[in-house]
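Structure (tokenized):
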């Protein structure tokens, strides 16, 4: 007997997939920032390299979030990746403006474009990759 999924189940909804995958992507960003912060304490780096490292952490986290979102949803990979990227961007923007008061100096447009591109690519890869369910 084949299992069928309910179309309105919480696990398969676009909002729940986006939320869970955005949290996973933010976790990856946080872990990479901690790793880079440890490396920065050991090596003196310029501000340009620090900016590149934080942008790389943002791109890897957005890609991971889009990948997980599309793998969980298993359809509409581009849309799921973009939704996850927008959600992650707004969370990062709110946190940065709340804690660091950097909303004025935050290069929002470039970070938004990077987040959307990498999350969308992650979504497309996630939908088209082999599903390893057991």
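Design, position by position:
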């Amino acid at each position: 007997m084949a299992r069928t999924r309910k179309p309105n189940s919480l696990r398969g909804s676009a909002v729940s997939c986006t939320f869970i995958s955005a949290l996973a992507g933010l976790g990856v960003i946080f872990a990479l920032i901690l790793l880079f912060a440890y490396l920065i304490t050991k090596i003196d780096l310029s501000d340009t390299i620090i900016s590149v490292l934080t942008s790389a952490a943002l791109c890897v986290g957005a890609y991971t979030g889009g990948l997980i979102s599309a793998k969980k949803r298993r359809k509409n990979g581009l849309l799921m990746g973009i939704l996850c990227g927008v959600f992650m961007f707004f969370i990062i923007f709110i946190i940065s403006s709340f804690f660091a008061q950097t909303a004025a100096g935050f290069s929002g447009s470039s970070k938004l474009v990077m987040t959307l591109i990498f999350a969308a690519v992650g979504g497309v890869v996630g939908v088209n990759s082999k599903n390893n369910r057991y």
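Reviewer-requested clarification: The chain has a mean pLDDT of 81. The chain has one domain: 14-127.
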